[in-house]
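Allow me, if you will, to draw on your knowledge of protein folds for a short while. A protein sequence and the structure tokens that stand for its backbone fold form the material at issue. I would ask you to consider whether the tokens describe a fold that such a sequence might reasonably adopt. Thank you for your consideration; the sequence and its tokens are set out here:
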Amino acid sequence: MSVSRLRYIPGIGVDEIGDAADAAHDPDLLRMENLDTDVRPPRTALDVTHAAIDDDAANSYLPFRGHSGLREAAAAHVGRMTGRAYDPATECVSVAGGLNGVLNVLLATVEPGREVVLCDPVYAGLINRIRLAGGVPRHVPCTPGPTGWSVDPDELAAAVGPNTAAVLVMAPAMPTGALLDHRHWEALATAVAPYDCWIVHDAAMERIRFDGRRPEPPAAHPGLADRTITVGSASKELRLIGWRVGWVVGPARIMADVGLVGMTNVVCQVGIAQQAVAAALNAPDADEDVAAATEIWRRRCELVLGQLADYPCVRPDGGWSLLVDTTALGLTPREASDRLFRRGRVAATPMTGWGPRGADHLRLVFADEPEERLTDLRDRFRAALG
């Protein structure tokens, strides 16, 4: 590496498998390596996007912190999820996708050398952004069981200390699909009280839950509301991946810094996409739209779990992916990925760099393949792994 900030950033692996799958030009190949989905975005978002192409105001850098309509919609959306009011002028900025928002928040809140607590396994892109911001990941184990993944609230709270800059949480988590709830927030509220640290909530998938329950965001907890920064995205729940629009909502005392980082980093969001995202967030049937998409993904997840009942899969509670413990099969995730690609025609990502516990697992994304293409997954696994 030519610069020290990249020393602990190995990459995410998804790009390698994705590039190989693209190069194969094989329509029979199951694309289960990348967090894409074939479920169409909300109709209103598509219509507003088409109109924006001819709108000169959408072809602009301005306003740098996001169009007022988007900020109003995002602040209202987060307010509805958390049960508190946010000022779109001082407590919300738009960002170029959720992960851009996470990086901006980390750059605004983490002094080099301070720790960021997060659950393990976790998306490598989150770990890498902590490193890029100069932070040190502090992993809290997420434990697999017959009904899914679980995080002990006391262990999560015990990871917080005087060197903690932030606790980065996501529920459903990526890639495990694990959930956090009021028990975790209660434990964290007590743990963070003596320290000047933030709760960074990656809310990209908070409504993609398979239990049908409403999200339980940390900002809804009275002990965490004033120290929670919520990062949202149109990519997952709204299926607007290519629009590259997200938002950050939080207390005014930190949002000026987050906005300053944004102007210094990506500068602004995709102009022709912002009003479309606002329309999707404001739609009267927005929750029903997300629920309908979630039901499609839930059915695909159940189909995959049924097909792979003889393999060590861990059930997710939501999200777009599930994990397979390949070490229980006597294979590294890389070996399993290679065999599945060559022998089973399945593209799947080994979780190298996705936290200490991720090193044993292979990720399968079930959001981008229709049910009829998943019905022979058992045969493909047997052909590849035995």
Q: What stands out?
A: The two ends are 39 Å apart (CA to CA).
